[in-house]
C-alpha cells in the first residue's frame, strides 16, 4: 500500500508516557529523537507533557537549525474538550505549550466525549459517558475546521474510529480528515479500515506499533498477545539479525502506515529508526507477517464505555452499525 501523505516522514515518535515515564523524561526523549533524525512527533493534550515536549522541541530545533517545514508536530483534542469552544481552547493551549504558531495535524483523540482521570483502573467508568453522537461530533469538527481556516492547523485527523463513523464524518465534513490514527501492529492489522482510509486519501498513522509492551495496567487483559514474542516475528528477526521491534516497524512502513513508536531510551530510538534501512521484507516474510493477524486489540477503551454498553466491543462497531445510534451508512 503506498503512503498517502508523501509530505510526511515515514516514521515518528510517540509521547505517551504510559503513566510510567515523567513529562521531563518524555521531553528529553523528544530531544534525543530529533537529534537522531526523527522529524515527526505525536503529542496529545491528555499526555500531560506538552509543556516539556514544547521546551525540548524549541531548544532542539534551534540547536539543529531546523526550519519549521523540516519537522511535523501532531496533537489531539481530549475527550473532555468536545464542546466546540473547549476544543478551540485545547488547540490554543497545545500551540502555546508546544511553542508553535501552527500544528501539522490536530486529531480528535476518541470519537466519544467520555473520559477518565489519569491512572484509573480498567473498571473505572465515567457516569456521564455516552455512545457516539454524530451531530455533537460534527459541531466539534466544525470548530476545528475553523482553526484550519485561520491557518493555525494544517490538517485534521480522527483516531479510534470505525469505518461506519468515518463514512458519516466524510459525508458531513467540510474539511475532510487527512489522517487516521489507529492501533496497528502485526497481531492487529485492521486491514479493512486501513484500506478504507487509503481509498479515501487518508493517511493511516499506526499507534502502539510494537504492541505497547509498557502500556498501563488498565489496558492489559490476560488474553492479550505479545507481538515482540510472536514466533513468526522472532524468526524473521533472528534470520536478519534484527530486534523483533525492528521487524514490526519494517512491516508497518512497508505497508504504507506511519508508525509512531515510543521510547525514552536513545538506543531503542536509534534501533527503531534503523529498522527502515536494509533490504525490504521478502514476499515470504510479508506473507508470514500477514498471517500473524489475531485481531489482538490491546487498547480496548473499556474506561470509555457508557452505562448501557455491553462490552468494549461496542466501542468499535464491529458489525458495521454504530453502537447506541443504530445508523448504518452505505456509500
Ligand atoms: N491515538 C491514540 O488513542 C493512541 C493510543 C496509544 C498510543 N498512541 C501514540 O502512539 C505512541 C506509541 O504507542 P505506545 O507507546 O502505546 O506503544 P509502542 O510504541 O508499541 O511501545 C512502546 C514501548 O516499547 C518498548 N520499545 C520501544 N522501542 C523498543 C525497541 N527498539 N526494542 C525493544 N523495546 C522497545 C519500550 O518499552 P520500555 O519503555 O519498557 O523499554 C516502549 O515504552 C504513543 O506514545 C502515543 O503517542 C496513541
Overview of this protein structure:
This protein is an alpha/beta fold and about 325 residues long. It has one domain (about 15-315): Alpha-Beta Barrel (TIM Barrel), CATH 3.20.20.100. It is built from ten helices and eight strands. The chain has helices at about 25-35, 50-65, 85-100, 135-150, 165-170, 190-200, 230-240, 245-255, 265-275, 285-290, and strands at about 15, 40, 70-75, 105-110, 155-160, 180-185, 205, 260. It has an eight-stranded parallel sheet with strand order 1-2-3-4-5-6-7-8. The two termini are about 20 Å apart. The relative contact order is 0.15. It binds NADP nicotinamide-adenine-dinucleotide phosphate. NADP nicotinamide-adenine-dinucleotide phosphate binds near residues 260, 262, 271 and 272. NADP nicotinamide-adenine-dinucleotide phosphate (NAP) binds near residues 15 and 260.
Total strand count, please?
8
Report strand %: 5-15%
What's the overall geometry?
Answer: globular
User: What is the structural class?
Assistant: alpha/beta
Summarize the structure.
This protein has 331 residues and is of the alpha/beta class.
Index terms:
NADP_OxRdtase_dom, oxidoreductase activity, NAD(P)_OxRdtase_dom_sf, about 325 residues, single chain, eight-stranded parallel sheet, Aldehyde oxidoreductase, alpha/beta, AKR
Topology:
Layout: E1 13-14, H1 23-36, E2 40-42, H2 50-64, E3 72-77, H3 84-98, E4 103-108, H4 134-149, E5 153-159, H5 163-172, E6 179-183, H6 191-199, E7 203-207, H7 231-240, H8 244-254, E8 258-259, H9 266-274, H10 283-290
Helix pairs in contact: 1-2, 1-9, 2-3, 3-4, 7-8
The structure holds NADP nicotinamide-adenine-dinucleotide phosphate (NAP).
Residues 14-16, 18, 42, 109, 159-160, 181, 207-215, 243, 245, 260-263, 265, 268, 271-272, 299 line the site of NADP nicotinamide-adenine-dinucleotide phosphate.
Amino acid at each position: 500500500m503506498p503512503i498517502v501523505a508523501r509530505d510526511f516522514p515515514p516514521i515518528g515518535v510517540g509521547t505517551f508516557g504510559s503513566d510510567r515515564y515523567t513529562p521531563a523524561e518524555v521531553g528529553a526523549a523528544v530531544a534525543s529523537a530529533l537529534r537522531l533524525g526523527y522529524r515527526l512527533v505525536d503529542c496529545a493534550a491528555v499526555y500531560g507533557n506538552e509543556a516539556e515536549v514544547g521546551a525540548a522541541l524549541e531548544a532542539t530545533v534551534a540547536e539543529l537549525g531546523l526550519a519549521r517545514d523540516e519537522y511535523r508536530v501532531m496533537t489531539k483534542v481530549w475527550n473532555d474538550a468536545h464542546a466546540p469552544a473547549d476544543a478551540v481552547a485545547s488547540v490554543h493551549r497545545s500551540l502555546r505549550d508546544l511553542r508553535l504558531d501552527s500544528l501539522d495535524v490536530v486529531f480528535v483523540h476518541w470519537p466519544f466525549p467520555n473520559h477518565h482521570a489519569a491512572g484509573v483502573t480498567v473498571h473505572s467508568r465515567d457516569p456521564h459517558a455516552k455512545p457516539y453522537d454524530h451531530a455533537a461530533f460534527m459541531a466539534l469538527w466544525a470548530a476545528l475546521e475553523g482553526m484550519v481556516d485561520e491557518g493555525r492547523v494544517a490538517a485534521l485527523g480522527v483516531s479510534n474510529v470505525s469505518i461506519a463513523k468515518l463514512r458519516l464524518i466524510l459525508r458531513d465534513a467540510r474539511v475532510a480528515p487527512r489522517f487516521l490514527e489507529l492501533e496497528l501492529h502485526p497481531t492487529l492489522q485492521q486491514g479493512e479500515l486501513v484500506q478504507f482510509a487509503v481509498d479515501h486519501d487518508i493517511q493511516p498513522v499506526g499507534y502502539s506499533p510494537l504492541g505497547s509492551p509498557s502500556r498501563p495496567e488498565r489496558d492489559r487483559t490476560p488474553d492479550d498477545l505479545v507481538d515482540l514474542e510472536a514466533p513468526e516475528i522472532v524468526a524473521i528477526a533472528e534470520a536478519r539479525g534484527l530486534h523483533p521491534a525492528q521487524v514490526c516497524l519494517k512491516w508497518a512502513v512497508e505497508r504504507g502506515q506511519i508508525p509512531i513508536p515510543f521510547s525514552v531510551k536513545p538506543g531503542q530510538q536509534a534501533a527503531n529508526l534503523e529498522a527502515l534501512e536494509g533490504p525490504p521484507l521478502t514476499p515470504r516474510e510479508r506473507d508470514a507477517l500477514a498471517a500473524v493477524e489475531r485481531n489482538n486489540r490491546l487498547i480496548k477503551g473499556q474506561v470509555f464505555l457508557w452505562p448501557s454498553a455491553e462490552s468494549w466491543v461496542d466501542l468499535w462497531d464491529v458489525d458495521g452499525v454504530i453502537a447506541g445510534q443504530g445508523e448504518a451508512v452505505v456509500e
